Amino acid sequence: MKLKLLVGAALAPVLAAGAAFAQDAEYEGPVTAVEDVIVTGQPAMRNRTDAVVPTLSYDLDYFQRFEPLTVGDALRRVPSVTFLSDVLESDGARLRGLDPGYTKILIDGEEVPGSGVDRSFFVDRIPAELIERVEVVRSSSANRSGDAVAGTINIVLRDALSLDGGYIRLGALMFPDSDYGEFGGTYGAVWGGQVGEGRLLVGANVQDRRNPKNKYSIRYDEPGGTIDNTEVQTDVRDGTDYAFNASYEVPLAGGMLDLSGVFVRTDRFQDEDSLEYEGGVETRANLAVVNDNDLDIRTDNLSLRGRYEREMFGGETTFKLGYATIDDEQYEFEAESEYLRDGTPFPDEDRFTLDSETIDIQDEEWKAAIEHKIELSGDMELEFGVQANWKTRDSLITETPRIRFNVPNAPAPRPAVPPFGASSPVLGGDASIEENRIDPYVMVSGNSGALRWEAGLRYEATDVTITDRTVPAAQQVTENDYGEFLPSFSLRWRLNDTDRVIFSAARTVRRPNFDRLSPALLEEEFGDSDFVGNPELQPETAVGFDLGFERRLGRRGVVGINAFYRDITDLIEETNTGVEGSAGPGTFIYTVDNVGDGKVYGLEFDLSTPLDFIGMESTGVFLNYSWLDSEITDFAGERRFNGQSDFVFSAGFTQDLPTWGAAFGASYRKQGDAEDRVLTEEVLTSYGADLEVFIEKQIGENIVVRLTGSNLLDSSKDEVFDKFDSVGDQLARDYDEYEIETEAAGPVYQLVMRIAF
To answer: Which residue numbers delimit the TonB-dependent receptor plug domain (predicted)?
Structure first.
């Protein structure tokens, strides 16, 4: 937190200097009227961009009428984005169904750190109210980070050009906790305008978040076998998100200075309570276990960015400096009471167990870049530069000594929870990772009649230092370095005034997960077998192709189809060291290495158009369908990439009623099944469909009121778990446990009013 304050203090004088020394030049640039931001009198469509790289662009008004709370909620209406989150949640975006680590998340074109071990950033951390637009970039360019195997999602926040005026957002939410529901609020304000010689935008947002679910599990000794137990669980996640963003753009010394920042705090409490019944007979006499599992989460995201552009050296030079950090603190407490260890039923308790764990992750990144563009002859442009990134990630995972005792022999009163200072680090839980990157690049682009193209080459040099303070001194510090050449090429061919073809080819990378780099030995990590990380892992690499066709429909509509293919090599997969594990014969120590290859491919269709070509100019429709598939060979044979849904479909409409100043619409979404297979466990995940609707009424010139309902089909998440004690048992299908779990939640309603001024 001290570092955050220091950075903010350091940038404040720069902002002041920008205002004080701005040139006497009239500010130029388009400014959006606030009425156009909060009220739309016609259907909102996908943008048809001029980018050479295949890019889908969606302005806020494409999402806003359904009032998404977060960027994750908004992304449910774009092609090829899936989630494996709980019902009512949209955290780790899976572009083309792949693990979130394969998708690069950018904010205003810049990388941001996430707390996850797979380097992913949870998109539900950014309130939807902050965004100007969302871009789905299907391929890669030399001037962007190459760790985007599946593609890139660029979240563009409102900047100083976004508004000329302001508005206030006031809303109430009703969550499905009971027949009468639980209530929360959502509040926000944004203002943009001229300040000195530049333009300033400031915004703030506060919203209550609540996700109440009911879960039910049945556990068998094997498929079709005897029921071991059932579990009835409630899971309520309750909290508040706070966000603040600001942007200032001002002429300075013959160039343009742009300063911006965003801060988001996620404050949540998760309360899971469950009752486990022996043999599936849900009576007091068969109550076996009562479990209370609480998790307190506070996550702070801060991103500060400075950008200065100026014409020099025969072209345009851009200087960038940025700082981003995530501070994730979690405290988890689990208390379990057992009742049938001696056959005496509830309420006579037999054994009590208490565990607690604290997680503190701080991930900081400094970024700097110098980039230069220069016009060449023949409608060509040369761009080159150097981008640098310095990451430091500190993880401290501690747990208090377990309290476990048999109640008949226990002291009275029951022992209290140990104080925070009594905790000690878990194996692999006290570690630091320093990752420094220097990425030079060069790119040439051109325009020749109906053809536009770009070709580039990027080199990413990475130095990694891993310090694990939970292993013997001789193993605590390990170093690794690697470099990758990443060529890219994109072509856009305009066939006529309505049709165009877009092709792209690029080489990309995915860096190893943080938890796979620690040399700590984790006992019984996979069933009864152990695991040790590999600090010398190299990144996965991929060669990818995209080929798409796009047609304009009428004045504003667009329809497109795109085929994609990724050939991924050096996959990071678990391997058996052959060394006997800590549990004795039949168990082993596993590690990870670059040993696998895989292929990912699919077709993506999207349609977004008003129906003006049939005389219904006030009706807009959208339809997205993606067929997703992949191939990979692991220890048990061929499978898809873990967690990849076989399809994702979304469709909807909006209907404006101009005479009444009103509108309504609906959105439907369905995601296909996803399978996971890892050592000693397999999971099949299925989701029900989701339906959202809205009704909107404009009041006067500058007020709009919307009522929205989401999850109106009471969507459920169903999971089937195949669990085994060892890989040998997994291959032989000798089950330790077979579990079927269902979680469900009811509708969420939202009433929102925006007032422009």
So the answer is: 59-152
DSSP state of 422: G
Residue 18 structure tokens: 């920008």
584: left (phi over 0), alpha (psi -120 to 50) or beta: left
pLDDT of residue 30: 39
Pairing of strands 151-157, 103-107: parallel
Our CA angle for 483, 107, 327, nearest 5°, is 85
In this structure, what DSSP letter does residue 63 have?
H
**Pairing relationship of beta strands 198-220 and 182-195 according to DSSP bridges:** antiparallel
Residue by residue, DSSP assigns 716-757 as EEEEEEEE-SSHHHHHHT--SEEEEEEEE---EEEEEEEEE-
How far is residue 74's CA from residue 127's CA, in Å, rounded to a whole number? 10
Which one, of 666, 754, 752, lies nearest residue 710 by Cα?
666
Q: How far apart are CA 70 and CA 113, in angstroms?
A: 18
Calculate mean pLDDT across residues 699-709: 91
**Lowest model confidence (mean pLDDT) among 109-123, 311-325, 594-608:** 109-123
Q: How many CB atoms lie within 10 A of CB 22?
A: 17
pLDDT mean over 472-490: 94
Is 670 within 8 Å of 676 (Cβ atoms)?
Answer: no
Give the CA angle between residues 17, 19, 23 to the nearest 5°.
100
pLDDT at 540 over 50: yes
- Separation CA 482–CA 225 (nearest Å): 51
Token pair recorded at residue 274: 């469950």
3-class SS of residue 14: helix
Token pair for 508: 């990309």
Average pLDDT over residues 673-692: 96
> Which residues pair with residue 563 across a beta bridge?
547, 603
Distance (Å, rounded) from C-alpha 309 to C-alpha 257?
7
- Residue at token pair 């992913």: 120
Closest CA to 587 of 517, 522, 533: 522
∠723-727-730 over CA atoms, to 5°?
50
For 48-87, write each residue's pLDDT tens digit.
Answer: 888 999 999 999 889 989 999 999 999 999 999 999 999 8
Q: Which of 147-156, 307-316, 423-432, 721-730 has the least mean pLDDT?
A: 423-432
Structural domains for the chain: 2-756 (2.40.170.20)
Among residues 573, 595, 593, 580, the alpha carbon closest in space to that of 529 is found at 580
Q: Supply the DSSP string of 655-714, one letter for each residue.
A: EEETTTTEEEEEEEEEE--EEEEETTEEEEEEE--EEEEEEEEEETTTEEEEEEEE-TT-
| Sequence-ordered list of residues with C-beta below 8 angstroms from that of 615, at least 6 positions apart, any chain | none
Torsion, CA 511, CA 512, CA 515, CA 521, rounded to 10: -150
Distances in Å between the Cα of 42 and the Cα atoms of 495, 623, 658 are 29, 18, 9
* Spatial separation of the C-alpha atoms in residues 288 and 637, rounded to whole Å: 39
User: Which pLDDT score is estimated for 17?
Assistant: 34
First-to-last C-alpha distance (Å) of the chain: 35
What is the residue whose two structure tokens read 């004088």? 13
C-alpha distances out from residue 575 to 13, 532, 593, 676, 745, Å: 53, 10, 7, 17, 39
Q: Beta strand 380-399 with 94-95: parallel, antiparallel or unpaired? A: unpaired
Counting beta carbons within 10 angstroms of the beta carbon of residue 742, is it exposed (0 to 12), middle (13 to 18) or buried (19 or more)? Answer: middle
Residues near 19 by Cβ (< 8 Å), separated by ≥ 6? 195, 196, 197, 198, 248, 250
Between CA 382 and CA 313 the distance in angstroms is: 13
Torsion angle of the four alpha carbons 369, 327, 539, 678, in this order, in degrees rounded to the nearest 10: -160
